[in-house]
């Protein structure tokens, strides 16, 4: 069960990060500009965002197993179409379906943990899953770079097809239904509208959700632009790019470890703001160096390492801040949180593609903008929380 659940949460990172080193070769083989290749990443996130709003309630109504099997089957077929895509339009459409399907693995992994484990054991399992979130994004570009160098970009999607099929088989043979009792009203439109309406009216939820979404978007500005920068502009091989990517992800790991040690002492509100300041320092340093005309691997890697340290502080604490007001609506709040996260990343990636000018500038600007917007959003959330805590003024 541990292996299955950790595999499920790895699907999102595997689906994106393994093919990042192939972006330059995809532009050449498919004969399209950078912006078109980046649409394959944006379309994935749009599908992922839509799926966040569907699978939780659907699995409450019909059970985890059938929804998960359907999602994995759709993922496997979509990955195979990606591997065989004759043109960029087919690849963009298949990536949308792939993202829509991947959302089932993320949502249902958390739901299955909640179904099967006591709180203490669930916390341990979620910690293992969190470690996967840290490690897989770092190693996936290295694996993808090796695949790209040896076999070309289509081989990455062949590998993902195999992983999807193997996981679907494992679920079919080894996983029974975990839902204790189906909820016949889980998909009731009136209930869904009421739940989401109550959530979006919360200033804390919107503030912390947007703080997470914007820093996530800044992180994916790096994901979208870094392969072109390192491989095309700086001339590094795809597997070396994977090593640079691993170095950057270690910044996130350092921030996450610091967050685990400091959250109980300083509180999530303060740590989100501290992380925002650190991310702005990293993003601002990159913007300054790039716009000053400096070029080299260190101009990107060192500032991004600092940015990712701030991201590691922001992400877990922003989740806590966003979901704290809704203990009775945690599932709906989590779904809406994930929707905002993915749709904001899709928008950032599209902007990076539109602004592409053959330099590092659009990527650096996107990273810095994500950090600034994230800090602004968490300040709005904190201000709303302070006002809510203040007693009402007596009427004169």
Plain-language structure description:
This protein has 396 residues and is mainly alpha-helical. Helix 11 packs antiparallel against helix 12. The longest helix is centred in the middle third of the chain and has 33 residues. It is globular and about 60 Å long.
Set down the secondary structure blueprint:
Elements: H1 2-17, H2 23-30, H3 34-62, H4 64-84, H5 88-116, H6 119-151, H7 154-174, H8 189-200, H9 203-233, H10 238-266, H11 268-291, H12 297-323, H13 330-355, H14 361-389
Helix pairs in contact: 1-5, 1-6, 1-7, 2-3, 3-4, 3-5, 3-13, 4-5, 4-7, 5-6, 6-10, 9-12, 9-13, 9-14, 10-11, 10-12, 11-12, 11-14
Condensed summary:
The chain has 396 residues and is an all-alpha fold. It has helices at residues 2-17, 23-30, 34-62, 64-84, 88-116, 119-151, 154-174, 189-200, 203-233, 238-266, 268-291, 297-323, 330-355, 361-389.
Query: CATH superfamily name of the largest domain?
Result: MFS general substrate transporter like domains
CA-based shape = globular
H and E order: HHHHHHHHHHHHHH
Strand content is under 5%
Brief descriptors of the model:
Growth Hormone, Chain: A, 0% strand, mainly alpha, disordered C terminus, 14 helices, 396 residues, 2 domains
């Amino acid at each position: 069960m541990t292996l299955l659940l950790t595999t499920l949460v790895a699907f999102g990172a595997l689906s994106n990060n393994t093919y990042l080193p192939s972006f330059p070769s995809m532009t050449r083989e498919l004969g399209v500009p950078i912006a078109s290749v980046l649409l394959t990443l944006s379309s994935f996130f749009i599908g992922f965002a839509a799926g966040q709003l569907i699978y939780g309630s659907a699995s409450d109504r019909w059970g985890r197993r059938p929804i998960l099997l359907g999602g994995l089957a759709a993922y496997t077929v979509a990955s195979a179409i990606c591997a065989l895509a004759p043109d960029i339009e087919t690849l963009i459409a298949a990536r949308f379906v792939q993202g829509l399907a991947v959302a089932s693995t993320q949502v249902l992994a958390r739901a299955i943990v909640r179904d099967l484990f006591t709180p203490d054991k669930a916390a341990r399992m979620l910690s293992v899953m969190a470690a996967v979130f840290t490690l897989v994004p770092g190693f996936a570009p290295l694996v993808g770079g090796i695949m790209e160098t040896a076999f070309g970009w289509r081989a990455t999607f062949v590998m993902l097809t195999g992983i999807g099929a193997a996981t679907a088989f494992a679920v079919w043979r080894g996983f029974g239904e975990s839902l204790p009792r189906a909820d016949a009203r889980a998909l009731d439109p009136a209930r869904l509208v009421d739940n989401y309406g109550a959530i979006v009216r919360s200033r804390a939820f919107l503030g912390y959700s947007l703080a997470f979404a914007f820093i996530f978007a800044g992180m994916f500005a790096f994901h979208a632009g870094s392969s072109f920068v390192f491989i095309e502009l700086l001339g590094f091989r795809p597997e070396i790019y994977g090593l640079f990517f691993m170095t950057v992800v270690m910044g996130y790991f350092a921030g996450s470890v610091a967050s685990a040690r400091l959250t109980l002492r300083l509180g999530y509100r303060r740590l989100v703001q501290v992380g925002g300041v650190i991310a702005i320092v990293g993003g601002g340093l990159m913007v300054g160096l790039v716009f000053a005309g400096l070029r080299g691997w260190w101009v990107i890697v060192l500032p991004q390492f600092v940015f990712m340290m701030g991201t590691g502080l922001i992400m877990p604490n922003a989740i806590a801040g966003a979901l704290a007001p809704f203990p009775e609506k945690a599932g709906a709040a989590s779904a809406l949180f994930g929707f905002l996260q993915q749709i904001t990343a899709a928008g950032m990636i599209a902007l990076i593609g539109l602004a592409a000018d053959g330099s590092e500038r659009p990527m650096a600007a996107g990273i810095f903008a994500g950090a600034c917007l994230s800090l602004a959003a968490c300040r709005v959330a904190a201000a709303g929380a302070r006002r809510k805590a203040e007693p009402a003024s007596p009427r004169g």
